[in-house]
Design brief:
The structure holds two protein chains of two kinds. By secondary structure, chain A is an all-alpha fold. Chain A contains 17 helices and two strands. The interface between A and B is large, with 109 and 97 residues.
Chain lengths: 590, 266
Amino acid sequence: MHDVSTDPALHHHNPPTGFIRKWVFSLDHKVIGKQYYALALVSVFIGIVLSWLMRLHLAWPAWPIPLLDKLSAVGAPSGVMTPEYYLSLLTMHGTIMVFFVLTNAPFAAFGNYFLPIQIGAEDMAFPRFNMMSFWTTFLAWVVMMASFFIADGPPISGWTAYAPLSAVGGDAGPGLALGQTLWAISIAIFCIGSLLGALNFISTTLDLRTKGMSLARMPFSSWAWFVTSVISLLAFAVLLPACILLILDRTAGTSFFIPAGLILSDKLQPHSGGSPLLWQHLFWFFGHPEVYIAILPSIGIVCTILPVFARKPLLGARAVIGSMIAIGFLSYMVWGHHMFVSGMNPFSADLFSVPTLIITIPATILSLLLIGTVYGAKMRFTSAALFCLGFISVFISGGISGFFLAQPSLDTVLHATYFVVAHFHFVMAVASIFGVFAGTYFWFPKMTGRMMSESLGKLHFWLTFIGVYAIFMPMHYLGLAGNVRRYSAFVDDYAIALIPVHKFITIAALLTGAAQLIFLFNLIWSRFRGAIASENPWEATSLEWSTSSPPPFDNFGGRHMIVYNGPNEYGVEGAQDYVMQTSPENVSAH
Amino acid sequence: MGKLFSAAVIIITVISVAIFVMHIWWLPVDISTTGPAIDRQLDETMVGTGVLFLASQILLAIFVWGASNTSSSRRAKNFPGGARPIVAFSIIIVGIEILTLTFVGSKAWGAIYIEPAAANALKVDVQAEQFAFYFRYPGPDGQFGSLHPDKVDDGSGNYFGLDPANDVAARDDIVVGSLEVPVDTPVALTLHSKDVGHSFFVRELRLQQDFVPGLDIPVHFTATKIGRYEIVCTQLCGLGHYNMKAYLEVVSKPDYDQWLKTQAGQ
């Protein structure tokens, strides 16, 4: 009997022809990947503008900022922002950057586009789920952005939305009525989109690998997306119910996070029995793995790209994959290090501190293996290669400060200071974004069929690399000196001495942010005017370089790819110094 | 391009480390009995991680410098010994660092957060609210009055919700806006919040502890230097968060007794 379930002809779908099905509600993972990238790109520029506004206010609080009163007449009368509007911008900067940029760009955007191609599949396992996950994420973005345009403005409770500030409603302050509700609804919707995406990534990786593509032969980027999707599935599955409980506390009169006897705006709140620490536990049980959701894909991207330009295999391929899995596994045991001084049982401090410190072992292994890969190489210094090298440097700089913050005893002086701001921006934001930049310069030719401008790319690298150090390194000094974060102004004698440092940081942030316009220009210009890209312009080995640029609708034009080699075959003897994964010739083991 | 990268990494690394080493911006003076252990822990971490930071950035710079030589006469080389020495090095060196920091650091942590306050410690009740701290001393009877949230009235100065009409212990409670303590005397605070999460941070005491609504959180210290120090809120608590502060006044024992007498007489 003919088995319909395994007949490839029945699984094949033809490319859509209408604009809506082709570009808007597309089932094609490549279009969905680009949609995620576009959403992240719009979001990152919003995030940059928000950070500019905050930085300007911190350095020159009395200066009116042009047009700011147009955005919010209440939040910034005549252009000078109120303390609460500063906190609104702070909340939105963190939320937009963490969720809509750092989760979307390295994982959802590049993962969607390249995971199926790198493993030789025609599409994701569930194309319809895939479309739903993007549009769900987009809906979350619209709901989040809507809070800018309501009378009360966005919430002021930070991206961590600690209860009961976030739970009791408008009595706690501006932005905490409708704005906070929109925030919680948006994040809940975002969780649904991410869960759908994670399921899809896991199924695709496990079920759709082409013949010969064993797990051990998957490129490092695909490994990273796979590990990240497992982390994502478990993390967002906790944040989603947490957000629902928060919404219930806010709208249905429940008291999951609100204890009895609270008095806000001179009113005794009608709640009893809840625990503010419960929110912190649920939030950080998601929140710490989220850090790895942001950074692991970029680690995978750099591990994939660096060997291409070093023209030699990545050092310690198995140790790299093992380290990524170890980091993913440990990421669930460390959330309490955000809560050392939160009032949880002080005996639990070591329990969270030791696994946190242990994570530095796989992180050190990864960093040193990347450095060891550069040893003795004959490097091609393209923009993508420079961002890979920059990644190694900033990842080390951000990781080092983790040694301090992982220790409960040092949290007594460093918690909630700019030292923490420096740490997480380096290791989670800058490192992750460097991976995204490397990925963009590397994969743009494949995604569009055109090369990006290398001179603009290098200019962008230098301004960004020096810029991020100028912004974030001084924040360590501020933190050591006791400068508290999340303050909209520094009003006492103690902090006023530190304002010159803030001015330096502000200038660096303005310039570094402006340098990103070079990147944006390069993207748009190269899309239309860039040199035509060949199938494999970088002489790379993985499967996406065995198909046209850009790939056809079904990725390989009806061919069924067969894989004979791992992705790491660089620097081999012969006419060309690399072996494609699809090349049937034998390769001597390294 | 590669040599430029190496130079940039070296310059950035050297400047960054120099500013740390020169202590241009550093922790303020320590004024508590538990602070020296924290400072020692910070110094040890700074040296250990500083060496790792310098070594890895410089190694990166050196290797990139070498990799920028692409002359055709040179053959690409692999890292001597492969990945194994790197993995072993990471596990052993970082492992030792972790064990040392944990064993030493646990003691510093325990002295503040796990050891209970001395039995004779001066007891002060601290309330945080948007956007102020209030401090309550038990008064001559040594007893704190009980709290009634429904009686809280900031307008009449009843920040804690005392009920002096019916509660004898509450009648002599002293409620003030700054924390006055005698030098070299153990002080035991009980932190509670009226509304949302706040935090109690005194940089010079090397002490930070959140207020959690619904919980009474004990914390203790002994101040060793007379002076006036800032108490700041470090947990985002609303629009006035940046301006939520009070002062810790460490005074001599006779001055403290005099202050207490004056307060009790009012």
